[in-house]
Amino acid sequence: YTAANLQQMETTGWLSRVPLTLKAAQELVHSDVTRLTEVPCNSKDYRMWEIEQTYAGVRQRWRLVESQTRKANADLWQPELEKLEHRLNRQLKKLTQRVFACKPDALEALMQFQDGLEVHQLTQVSLETVRAKRPPGRPAKSAEPTPVQGYRLQATLQQTATAEDRFSRQRSRFILATNQLEQSLWPAQTCLSEYT
User: Would you say residue 191 lies in a domain?
Assistant: First the structure.
């Protein structure tokens, strides 16, 4: 934004949906609403909470909106959860097929994968030794074990106990932002009606 754009944004009243690619928006969508200020909403299908936020140098009011219908309708979010699980299982399979040179490398890769999980967890995690292939034929009694070539991870992907509730809640939320800080001029209900 240029200084002129920002000044115009401050003087012109606007209403916009906040993209969930913003870190602050993701945090708000995932937040515990018991810590937020709920605002009155006449629409039976919606609940709203409000916070003040400064973004790109502009003070704003952000309204977290949650659709009760969307939250309750598994057909709207269940396919997305299944798609996510399928993609994660493919990534995990690829990870468990890799042979790592040392245990720390394997464990670091495991932690990176696990840190990216939103509503899943890894269970039955183990690290197995990968040895060089033995030459054909019966080994001699005095034969040494074949040398270790590396290490391979084993793990199973599983949904967390709260996965469906958390996923449905997050997928039923969006954020409306306005630079109109005077609540009586643009009440939450008016903003929602204008947007929907």
Answer: yes
pTM of the model: 0.61
Residue 83 resides in a domain: no
Q: How many domains does the chain have?
A: 2
Contacts of residue 87, Cβ cutoff 8 Å, sequence gap at least 6: none
> Please, which contacts does 98-102 make with residues 24 or more away whose CB atoms are closer than 8 Å?
98/152, 98/153, 99/130, 99/149, 99/150, 99/151, 99/152, 100/150, 100/151, 100/152, 100/153, 101/150, 101/151, 102/150, 102/151
Q: What is the pLDDT of residue 166?
A: 79
Tokens of 76: 């709207």
Asked whether residue 158 is domain-assigned, the answer is: yes
Q: Is residue 80 part of a domain?
A: no
Over the chain (196 residues), what is each successive 10-residue block's mean pLDDT?
Answer: 51 81 87 85 86 87 87 81 94 95 93 92 92 70 71 93 82 87 75 76
Instruction: Please state, as a whole number, how many other Cβ atoms lie within 10 Å of the Cβ of residue 152.
Output: 17
Domain range enclosing 152? 98-162
